[in-house]
TrEMBL record:
<keyword id="KW-0663">Pyridoxal phosphate</keyword>
<feature type="modified residue" description="N6-(pyridoxal phosphate)lysine">
    <location>
        <position position="202"/>
    </location>
</feature>
<feature type="active site" description="Proton acceptor">
    <location>
        <position position="202"/>
    </location>
</feature>
<dbReference type="Pfam" id="PF01041">
    <property type="entry name" value="DegT_DnrJ_EryC1"/>
</dbReference>
<dbReference type="InterPro" id="IPR000653">
    <property type="entry name" value="DegT/StrS_aminotransferase"/>
</dbReference>
<dbReference type="InterPro" id="IPR015422">
    <property type="entry name" value="PyrdxlP-dep_Trfase_small"/>
</dbReference>
<dbReference type="InterPro" id="IPR015424">
    <property type="entry name" value="PyrdxlP-dep_Trfase"/>
</dbReference>
<dbReference type="GO" id="GO:0030170">
    <property type="term" value="F:pyridoxal phosphate binding"/>
</dbReference>
<dbReference type="GO" id="GO:0000271">
    <property type="term" value="P:polysaccharide biosynthetic process"/>
</dbReference>
<protein>
    <submittedName>
        <fullName>dTDP-4-amino-4,6-dideoxygalactose transaminase</fullName>
    </submittedName>
</protein>
<dbReference type="GO" id="GO:0008483">
    <property type="term" value="F:transaminase activity"/>
</dbReference>
<dbReference type="InterPro" id="IPR015421">
    <property type="entry name" value="PyrdxlP-dep_Trfase_major"/>
</dbReference>
<comment type="similarity">
    <text>Belongs to the DegT/DnrJ/EryC1 family.</text>
</comment>
Amino acid sequence: MAGEPEQKADAVASSSPAVPLNDLKRGYEALAEELEAAATRVLRNGWYVHGPEHQAFEREFGEYLGGVECIGVGNGTDALEISLKSLLPSPGSVVVTAANAGMYSSTAIRRAGLIPRYADVDPETLLLTPESVEAVLGDDVSVVVVTHLYGRLADVAGIRAVARARGVAVLEDCAQAAGAGEPGRRAGGLGDVAAFSFYPTKNLGALGDGGAITTRRPDVAEQARRLRQYGWEAKYRVGQDGGRNSRLDELQAAFLRVRLPHLDDWNQRRREVIARYVEAADGVRVRVLPASGADHVGHLAVLVAQDRAAVRAALDAAGIQSDVHYPVPDHQQAPFVDHFASVSLPVTEEMAGRILTLPCFPELGKDEVDRVCTVLRDL
Ligand SMILES: Cc1ncc(COP(=O)(O)O)c(C=O)c1O
């Protein structure tokens, strides 16, 4: 509706259904005092862009990820686009990516003047694999984008091995996987470069838009720092073509600094919620994708059902909100459908009609989880 604030479907207001898919207000309330103190600090400081909060967040997030360089940007899609450009791919070259990850990588690939090519995903994990990537690699490929979908670490080492053999770089899309892995081997430090989103529903969410690029490669970090700010190598001196303005603002950086120390606990809580769903769905006609262990941070609780409409109707009847991440594979999105008409991705296409996302966020109450479990058990 005109004039209404835009929110993605997974960021619903708290007053909606009995069990909402997400409730951002609860996340604010849990840390209200600290978040408000952080906002006040920024307002009173008078430095609103690339100030001390931003510098501190870059340092703290880089340390959390195991000593990587961190470059704050405006959102996750910008992080993907600038990461791609930082790798200096040949103009017009091909980027391999998955088609089941919400069109974000495709958007960034097009914005960077590159061409997407899709690899299919594994039917158990819904992630790219070294084999599926290798099947579509060619001399025209410059980069592979690996999305840690739903919070689960993909096999970056395996994909890197097949990519490296052809001189192809690997970009991790960590938007859904902040904190996945273990200290020293975390998402964001495994490929050549990585992109994070701090969209409010993410595991590490801001109170508005935000994003970051991380890398262990000093050359890539230098390019990214230039490209996020007009291509400047020094103030008002452009050293790199293709730059733009994408900055993580000072308020969001301050909020993220309040939230980062809680990330591991929140990720654990998400895993516990998903473990309850897995247990409840044992023996019924749906499969809940498990999220156990450090390599999964339970960003989304996703089930696979033969008859998704019936499952959704049962959830609806119990006042439980659900959604689909994502209903249309990238190669079948309207602007692409003619161009990719001959592309067939059997697993991606089948799963788009079977997946369903259940409520999962750290502040979800025990009674709410019980309510979802009752519906799952009765399926
Ligand atoms: C996998 C993935 N990549 C990229 C993005 C883009 O992030 P943003 O919305 O901050 O641009 C998102 C989330 O929105 C995402 O889930």
